[in-house]
Specification:
With 279 residues, the chain is an all-alpha fold. The chain has one domain: Four Helix Bundle (Hemerythrin (Met), subunit A), CATH 1.20.120. Helix 5 runs antiparallel to helix 9. It comes from Arthrobacter hankyongi.
């Protein structure tokens, strides 16, 4: 039920105390790495505007979902402007993603439905971006003529397959974390705290050593919508400089598929080696 005791026009200090408590700001994995850098410092201003309107927290989550889907739609625009717009939409998605929780905490309307909608938003957004990248790659094959070359058609299907495979691998990597929580709940275990200690792998083991090495190249961070859109923007700049449409995007697709496969394998091994699934 909505908390009606709080002011309808709160100050920023009042909002921060309720909407951004220390237990939220200190979350290790639920917060994007830009949260402390700039995200939470700016999102509170957006939340300050939103709590003065009738929009619900789930309504804000809906805006997060739409802005996430807009990333992929923008990537279908040829040239450099599509990726630039995609980067803008990815930042917009981040702010709505922060503000929906802040609005819910201020109004006291946190609910499983809101968490569910948030998951829908992230899974669909990050699953659609690789498909949009693959479709973007097709723009460099000249397939729009009346009689396209058969070899180019086969190449186009190959890129669509790579895009679908990449989407599956990215969604699977996200799902592994949710599988841990679901497995613990079904086994009657307590909720896993969002701390580094709860997910730590013994340092003396081979997996622990590999995880320490992986910190120098945290590729798993590149699989979020913000980072993916920035990578695609960089790839489109390469295409522009090279004078070959979608050259950079195609090579990005070739690199991402095996890299994300390795990330999935490493994630699975790390989960199995950590105390996350132990009683």
């Amino acid at each position: 039920m909505m908390d009606t005791t709080r002011p309808a026009h709160p100050t920023l200090e009042q909002l921060r105390a309720v909407a951004q408590p220390p237990e939220v700001r200190s979350r290790k994995n639920a917060e994007h790495w830009t949260a402390e850098l700039y995200l939470r410092h700016i999102s509170i201003y957006l939340t300050s505007v939103l709590v003065r309107t009738p929009i619900s927290a789930n309504g804000v989550t809906g805006l997060m979902i739409l802005s996430g889907w807009a990333i992929s739609a923008c990537l279908l625009i040829p040239g450099i402007w599509g990726p630039l717009l995609a980067v803008f939409c990815s930042q917009l998605q981040l702010y709505f993603d922060c503000s929906d929780g802040e609005v819910a905490r201020w109004r006291g309307t946190q609910s499983p439905k809101g968490i569910f909608l948030d998951k829908i938003g992230h899974y669909t957004t990050e699953g659609l971006i690789p498909l949009a990248l693959a479709l973007r790659c097709l723009g460099g094959f000249g397939l729009l003529g009346p009689d396209p070359d058969r070899a180019l058609l086969h190449l186009a299907w190959f890129h669509m397959f790579l895009g679908a495979l990449l989407a599956l691998l990215i969604v699977l990597n996200k799902a592994q974390n949710d599988m841990v929580h679901a497995s613990r709940a079904l086994a009657g275990l307590d909720k896993l705290p969002d701390t580094a200690a709860a997910k730590a792998v013994p340092a003396a083991t081979l997996v622990g050593r590999l995880r320490r090495l992986a910190r120098f190249l945290p590729f798993h961070r590149m699989l979020h919508s913000v980072e993916m859109s920035l990578l695609i923007l960089a790839a489109s700049v390469v295409s522009l400089i090279a004078g070959q449409p979608t050259l950079g995007e195609r090579w990005l697709l070739y690199v991402l598929v095996p890299a994300v496969l390795l990330v999935n394998i490493g994630h699975f091994v790390a989960i199995m080696a950590s105390p996350r699934l132990r009683k």
